[in-house]
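Subject: mismatched residue count in predicted assembly?

I count 831 residues in my input, but I want to confirm that the predicted structure covers every chain. Input:
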Amino acid sequence: MKKEDTVKLISAEGFEFVVDKKAAMVSQTIRNMLTSPGGFAETQLGEVTFPEISTPILEKICQYFYWSLQYASGKETEFHIEPEITLELMMAANYLHT
Amino acid sequence: MSSQKKRNFKIEAFKHRVELDPKYAERTWKVLEHAIHEIYNHNASGLSFEELYRSAYNMVLHKYGEKLYSGLVTTMTWHLKQIAESIEAAQGGLFLEELNRKWVDHNKALQMIRDILMYMDRTYIPSCHKTPVHELGLNLWRDHIIHSGKIQTRLLDTLLELIHRERTGEIINRGLMRNITKMLMDLGPSVYQEDFEKPFLEVSAGFYSGESQQFIECCDCGDYLKKAERRLNEEMERVSQYLDARSEAKITSVVEKEMIANHMQRLVHMENSGLVNMLLDDKYEDLSRMYNLFRRVPDGLSTIRDVMTSHLRETGKQLVTDPERLKDPVDFVQRLLNEKDKHDKIISIAFNNDKTFQNALNSSFEFFINLNNRSPEFISLYVDDKLRKGLNGATEEDVEVVLDKVMMLFRYLQEKDVFEKYYKQHLAKRLLNGKTVSDDAERSMLVKLKTECGYQFTSKLEGMFTDMKTSQDTMQDFYASPFGDIGDGPTLTVQILTTGSWPTQPSPACNLPPEIVNVCEKFKSYYLGTHTGRRLTWQTNMGYADIKATFGKGQKHELNVSTYQMCVLMLFNSADGLTYKEIEQATEIPASDLKRCLQSLALVKGKNVLRKEPMSKDISEDDTFYFNDKFSSKFVKVKIGTVVAQKESEPEKQETRQRVEEDRKPQIEAAIVRIMKSRRVLDHNSIVTEVTKQLQSRFLPNPVVIKKRIESLIEREFLERDKADRKLYRYLA
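Triage response: the counts match. Full output below for your records.
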């Protein structure tokens, strides 16, 4: 996959997740970051740091991106969420406008 | 996650970060304010979107939304004031460019600001009913830039000035214009309309009112229309190039009003080049242009139509009442047809085949054709001329075309029964003299009349054709029968005409030469022998004969003459010279016919088988006629023309008219009875209307005549007047 088509998402602990841009743009916030006309640092570097999102949550989020891309429109499948991370995940979702 | 949202799951914000130091909001806002400055300064690349977004996010979460929003307004306002100053400072032509550049910058900045403040846009603004960021940016731009005192008028003036320059032929930067008008539209339709469109339309109206005044003074109608059309197209193109599409209808209506509607009458009536001249000169292009332009304004087409109608009526009236024209009926009708063709063509080419124009044309023709009460006669004469000779060598389609055209004129006639009368006469002459060139054409004309007016109209005409056919058969039978042995007497061809079908006028039979009388008698006894109970009378005024004559130097000629002429010529077998009186006595031909017949025998050059003394151009009762020994001709067969199918002389015309009036009486009576039979009781005026309606396919009955007929019917006890109301009539069964 070409570098331009991917984006690096970095968690609070410094873990890096390289995901498809298309998948990342499931989040409205990330979409704005990457498409805003001004050329912010994120757009130029192709990486976004989330100092308030922990690694497990970001991982779950990335899984959700791909799941959403594949199934959100139509098929009845479950996206499994462990109950113990639900709250944090919710907050991140609000932040990312997903 | 979205599935949880659907269950209306309330999301609590980051509550664990409540321990805020009071400076937090201030500090965060500083970060954001700095970022906004940087964005306006094109320095955004060093900024982290995530950080800014998070800052704004946190501010909103921690109830500092109000601070964030008002801070944004202040900062943006400050920037826009800067921008306004820089735009105001721009010199002359650079003004628009500067404005445009700043607009583009502002838009981009606005987009970025909206992105980083997205969370505020999403949550804080709807809950507080504030203006969303993007709209806020546009409003601020409108208030601080477009409506700033120094820019507002300057912008408008510059735009109008540029458009004016383009109208006078200069090239302007259309892309820039488009961007600026686009900006005005983006700021809201009301900004575009108030700050640009309205004054633009006013200035345009002024411009075109002046220009049209100038054009109309110095151009002819055609040129003026060309110019108007060009202007109209220019404006439409302008709209498509750099104005809002909704302006098109407005600006075109301005141009239409100023350039066309205001000058419509003057254009149409312009001397030497107005509508009438265009019609006369078949200027299809100009006419079409006029049609298309005038169609755009109210009353435009009706103006054209009215002028065309009055022009048609005027020329038509001249045509049908010009005594010069009346001398040649064929030419007269041909002119009518040409006129009709001409205008049909104009309507189809230039006026888009507009139905209302066709109707106007038809009603005009109907109007003026009926101005001349000889039109029915002339039209019949025209057909007569065509069916006699005019169609020689023409193909079947051509014949159809000519006949169709005639039928078109026929439709305009109000007095169709008069036409019928004449047509019958002319047809009779054609049939009896064997002058029809094409049986098919005759039949086709008959069919057309039948489809137009119904069976009743043509039944007698068809009867005439049937008579011709049976006569042929009868003659064959006659010569095959014992009566048919006529020895070396002259060959006789008899046409038996049913009384009533033919327009025969009772005319006293002339004295036929004894040789002929002999054969006639034989035929008579044959015919009455096979058909009992019939009466035969001889119509000597209608036949024709072929006779052989030997002249002075022994040259032989075959003369084709009418029955009357034959009778006259046969007299010269026994005498060389006869006076007019002697001829009249011997033949008993009615005076007017005799004169005509002598005229054609003695006075036509090259066909003067008789010599007249004294030589003069007219036949008088004192003349003496001699057999012309010196007659010579290149042809063996000489056709002595009779004065045929001429238009009627005045007394004949009167007579025909009288007969027509006479014929109408029973028709009117029949109509009255038909109406009364179904209605039982009716007042006078209604009867008149009904009768007129029933009969108008044949003629227009005169109300006075209808009244007389009603009276006559009352006398004969078909009707009676109501005893209470004298205006009512009652039907008596």
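DSSP finds five helices and three strands in chain A. Marking this ticket as 'not a bug'.
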